[in-house]
Fold this sequence. Notes:
Structural class: mainly alpha
Number of helices: 45
Strand order of the largest sheet: 8-9-10-7-11
Number of strands: 14
Helix content: 55-70%
Radius of gyration: 41 Å
Distance between the termini: 121 Å
Oligomer: single chain
Shape: elongated
Amino acid sequence: xxxxxxxxxxxxxxxxxxxxxxxxxxxxxxxxxxxxxxxxxxxxxxxxxxxxxxxxxxxxxxxxxxxxxxxxxxxxxxxxxxxxxxxxxxxxxxxxxxxxxxxxxxxxxxxxxxxxxxxxxxxxxxxxxxxxxxxxxxxxxxxxxxxxxxxxxxxxxxxxxxxxxxxxxxxxxxxxxxxxxxxxxxxxxxxxxxxxxxxxxxxxxxxxxxxxxxxxxxxxxxxxxxxxxxxxxxxxxxxxxxxxxxxxxxxxxxxxxxxxxxxxxxxxxxxxxxxxxxxxxxxxxxxxxxxxxxxxxxxxxxxxxxxxxxxxxxxxxxxxxxxxxxxxxxxxxxxxxxxxxxxxxxxxxxxxxxxxxxxxxxxxxxxxxxxxxxxxxxxxxxxxxxxxxxxxxxxxxxxxxxxxxxxxxxxxxxxxxxxxxxxxxxxxxxxxxxxxxxxxxxxxxxxxxxxxxxxxxxxxxxxxxxxxxxxxxxxxxxxxxxxxxxxxxxxxxxxxxxxxxxxxxxxxxxxxxxxxxxxxxxxxxxxxxxxxxxxxxxxxxxxxxxxxxxxxxxxxxxxxxxxxxxxxxxxxxxxxxxxxxxxxxxxxxxxxxxxxxxxxxxxxxxxxxxxxxxxxxxxxxxxxxxxxxxxxxxxxxxxxxxxxxxxxxxxxxxxxxxxxxxxxxxxxxxxxxxxxxxxxxxxxxxxxxxxxxxxxxxxxxxxxxxxxxxxxxxxxxxxxxxxxxxxxxxxxxxxxxxxxxxxxxxxxxxxxxxxxxxxxxxxxxxxxxxxxxxxxxxxxxxxxxxxxxxxxxxxxxxxxxxxxxxxxxxxxxxxxxxxxxxxxxxxxxxxxxxxxxxxxxxxxxxxxxxxxxxxxxxxxxxxxxxxxxxxxxxxxxxxxxxxxxxxxxxxxxxxxxxxxxxxxxxxxxxxxxxxxxxxxxxxxxxxxxxxxxxxxxxxxxx
Length: 942
């Protein structure tokens, strides 16, 4: 068969001559003829057959054209092959390709005869079906010029300037990355721009070579395996001309390319290498080795892996640039950019799309028919929302799903498992946990690094993370396969093991690292708990909760602990392992102290029976935590007995010295802390000193910073009451240093408030004020009601010490007390308000505040707070001229507290009103002075 294009289209075979009807079939025939004998990819065919108005589905349209063209040609000439089509003809059977080969051979051998033979084939101007083939006409005319100059022995002109597609829209951001690419190309011969799909790699590569003197752009997306050389050869026809001094005529795409670039300082852009990565790497290496002046700029979702390869990583757009891109594209879609009241929504959309330029463009395009609020809401199913892109965009960029499908199709089975597994870890996967997690999902840990290389995972700050869009894609895959529950349960299993390993190290020097692990995996753990909650079997959930308990306790996460205990505890379940004992014991403990407004749901008999079961089970499964079960239930019993008798007695801990000595070192230290806490509450200062000192020493020996900080607070309390204020301040500050960054903000502020109180007793007012300012900053950052209350109560304390009643009252009135707030804090705040009012000589209002504070303090069973309220009551009595009752009340405060806190600022204020230190209350037995009864104490205000 012979095909002629010079002077018009003609197709003949033997004595027969055929006609090819329709411009579409003619264009397809011409494009296949240009690369006869070579597979031409779908994309390359579509670009030339429909250069300006591609059909909605180019591949289907090509199949239709090929089917019709096949019927007009002899059998077997038009082959359908993976990735495209091939015309099974020799280049000698087609006049334009024979012409090109003759000219190339003539130039290689400086042969005027072959040049004239080539010119003889030129029987008329080249025929083309439309202007989209003007590049071919230009190539043929240039070859004719070469042939004519050879025939006439004329010199060769300079090569034609490269053709790089013009930019349709301006580049937004990426200035640093663009500079980095240009800089790398001055020092490295192979530079690969790596990033996830839709990051803008192609845009930056084209922007780079627009300023290059000699460049060739090769689009590899349509190329299948085995077609990279052919794709470059096809691009050669569009750009770089064959070298004048080529030693031989090119006989294959590989040789055509090598000879076309020989001797040139050219930059070749290999765009979208990821799906033919090995072949692209081999081609790049061959080109670099064969042509010293050649440089390659590749774009890929993973490295080529060639020696000497330099990289420019392209991640999400920075926030400001991403916002600007979205605003511009919204303006293009609907005529106006986001309004001021839409900017927060716009920023949220951009953030949820990970700052990926293509995803942002797809979302902004929806602004033509949707409000930004509707787009934001629609991102809950982002793949449905962003399912329509520009008609002429490549298939892989037309929808958000197609963008990631393109990467998914290149993954191995283990990589696909790892991507889906990563999607059920919202916090990502720590590098130290990767091996365990990989084993749980039946893959090797190196697969996570492979996904990093493929730009699907990001490795940052020691963690493997998925962009949110890729994570949603993985979850979508799991749902479609019906495998989401299985993967989430596997994740919960391995997180339980990992959390338990961390928890075992946290009652000692491993606490900071353990807390850091739990902080980094907070959403992972929450997701695992939700998975366990959905299961009818509570046992796995109890094991996970047991592993979380200590981290939650240190951070005072009580608002999460109560519902979790209610969710996973089961009083009917067997107590057959340590996690079950701990969780069930804490559930009973929690139920014994219900939230404000609720009452306990069991009677004394039920409590006693369950307590006995748990104490016995704790002996069967001994641990640092279960050893505390008995003493803690003894505390609960003391509170229950006091409540049943109607006596407002302090709580106590019944644990013998022998029991303490038999416990592990950390548990011994904790039991000494509990004893010290009971002593400070009962006004037993001698016991407080002994027990707190032992706790500090033991916690220091085991290396537990949290325990050291908590016990230091108690020891400092004793030193303060003993009048050793400088030592107390030193111990408090040392405790602050130890627990900083570990404990809850509330614990931290409590220690800081204690330091403020000590400074005020030392008379160092300005130092105390500076520390209160720091507390205010911490509380404002935290934002919780409790933190703000603690900071403002400390500020009120400072103003009272300064004698500024107006400032103290302003601070007191800013304390954000809410219903359900701890009664002891509400009582103390009321006492402070009363003190401020007394400084302002407003005793009636002070009395009203104290009548509210006294019952709250008594009900709280917090005797240090009761003592503080009594000091304020003494101040009221002194202010209204009832000196004897003021002295009695101060004596009661000292008895309840267990010491005379005479350096406390308001205590001094009362003494000044009384004309000196008070004598003991005459006629009142010491036992009655320590009575904590609301009616008795309220009578002091009558």
